[in-house]
Design goal:
By secondary structure, this protein is an all-alpha fold. It contains 3 helices and no strands.
Length: 86
């Protein structure tokens, strides 16, 4: 039973926001979404990352280690590709 309550705690807000967006989209299909997109990208995502890092008990050493790994992966992914010469 406890598992179901935890699922409801997590999933209800998500589907509630989806429902609000669906309702507003049906009510006015030409709604301007620039503000909410900018807000979510510039404020919401960094706030969510900060909240997750501060509440999960991640230590600075673990965070630094994963940050370095992420930088290594990004560097390898965005390396300029060699062009094929015929």
């Amino acid at each position: 039973m406890e598992l179901y309550l935890k699922l409801i705690d997590v999933l209800f807000p998500v589907f509630f926001v989806i429902g609000i967006g669906y309702y507003l989209g049906k009510k006015n299909p030409n709604i301007n979404t620039d503000f909410i997109t900018t807000f979510a990208g510039n404020v919401g995502t960094p706030a969510m990352i900060f909240y997750t890092i501060t509440t999960t008990g991640v230590t600075l050493s673990v965070f630094t280690e994963y940050f370095i790994y992420a930088l290594i992966i990004i560097k390898k992914e965005y390396r300029p590709k060699k062009s094929l010469q015929l």
